[in-house]
Design a protein that fits this description.
CATH architecture of the largest domain: 3-Layer(aba) Sandwich
Structural class: mainly alpha
Bound molecules: adenosine monophosphate, tryptophan
Order of helices and strands: EHEHHEHHHHEHEHHHHH
CATH topology of the largest domain: Rossmann fold
Number of strands: 5
């Protein structure tokens, strides 16, 4: 069995991009692998957070994990800050990461652009992410395309340390989907769908009601040429909607295009509204019950214990190989 690890930040507005790029894979992988899914709260404090809201968002993401179909009997679900090994290993990896490679990370450049000074945590973000992954001897990391550079850095650090010390870490592979790995914003298909965009119609949140789903899709930016065709470069809006349709319906993009031959954008969007409503309804229905249940916190506690036991073994090996601690 392979070990799978991934994480989502508890920053609210979990959207269709998170689902199609990441969460859907999490569910599919849990039958044949040993999966560990984390709510990465330490990553979320690299930007300002309201403490009360953050606590609530942690439980929201935990409840969403379970609502989309992650089964705590099969997978470990836990909160990052509940296992101290993440912060501990992060420091050790920091000592083998270079400032040059960290300053080349596009996420850091995007998030710090135009600011006179950025928190050091934002700069170290990818090292903490590497610690998350390496702490569990992870083989596979299912994520969206935007995390490719971070996974590459994690591999580089692991290989570097394995060469310098005794072989200490498993070198992980990223798992990116062919379709769904980069869902674009509905109002501007040149940008990726994001949790933080101001326009709520740029995204579909997983808990959006039917009316909101309809409004956001019917308003989605397309183009004036009127033909339903997959061509991300020249028709980014239509191509993004086709991708969403394809992944949600399980049909290939070619089949979707063929089934709408001769139709207009309006008809296509109406069908997409129906398919999206159908996909999100069960998630929304599961969510409220799970979010309110006492069991949720018990699941997170149990998850932290199981994750903690694995982490402890890794930390012992790391300290031995580095000659630190006693
Ligand atoms: P985050 O919201 O940054 O914590 O991301 C959680 C997961 O969703 C990561 O695996 C991301 O790569 C993935 N993700 C975020 N935005 C998108 C998007 N627009 N399309 C596909 N995957 C995404
Ligand atoms: N950086 C990831 C994101 O924003 C979240 C994350 C943190 C993660 N640690 C991870 C993803 C470890 C995979 C593995 O999407």
């Amino acid at each position: 069995m392979k070990r799978v690890f991934s994480g989502v930040q508890p920053t609210g507005n979990i959207h269709l991009g998170n689902y199609l790029g990441a969460l859907k894979q999490f569910v599919e992988l849990q039958d044949d692998n040993e999966c560990i899914y984390c709510i990465v709260d330490l990553h979320s404090i690299t930007v300002p957070q309201d403490p009360k809201e953050l606590r609530s968002h942690i439980l929201d993401v935990a409840a969403l994990y379970l609502s989309v179909g992650i089964d705590p009997k099969k997978s470990i679900v836990f909160v990052q800050s509940d296992v101290s090994g993440h912060s501990e290993l992060s420091w050790i990896l920091t000592c083998s990461a270079y400032t040059g490679e960290l300053s080349r990370m596009t996420q850091f450049k995007d998030k710090s652009r135009g600011k006179e000074s950025a928190p050091a945590g934002l700069f170290m973000y990818p090292v903490l992410m590497a610690a998350d992954i390496l702490l569990y001897d992870t083989d596979i990391v299912p994520v969206g395309n935007d995390q490719k550079q971070h996974i590459e850095l994690c591999r580089d650090i692991a290989i570097r340390i394995n060469n310098k010390y005794k072989k200490t870490f498993v070198v992980p592979d990223g798992r990116f989907l062919k379709e769904g790995a980069r869902i674009m914003a509905l109002d501007d298909p040149t940008k990726k769908m994001s949790k933080s965009a101001e326009n709520i119609h740029s995204r579909i949140s997983l808990l959006d009601e039917d009316g909101k789903i309809k409004k956001s899709i019917m308003r989605a930016t397309t183009d004036s040429d009127g033909e339903i065709r997959f061509d991300p470069e020249n028709k980014p809006g239509v191509s993004n909607l086709l991708t969403i349709y394809s992944v949600l319906s399980g049909k290939s993009i070619d089949d979707v295009v063929a089934s709408f031959a001769g139709s207009g954008y309006g008809d296509f969007k109406k069908e997409l509204v129906e398919i999206t409503k159908e996909a999100l309804l069960p998630i929304r229905q599961n969510f409220s019950e799970i979010r309110e249940s006492d069991e949720l916190k018990a699941i997170l506690r149990d998850g932290a214990e199981r994750a903690g036991a694995i982490a402890e073994k890794t930390m012992k090996r790391v300290k031995d190989n580095f000659g630190i601690g006693f």
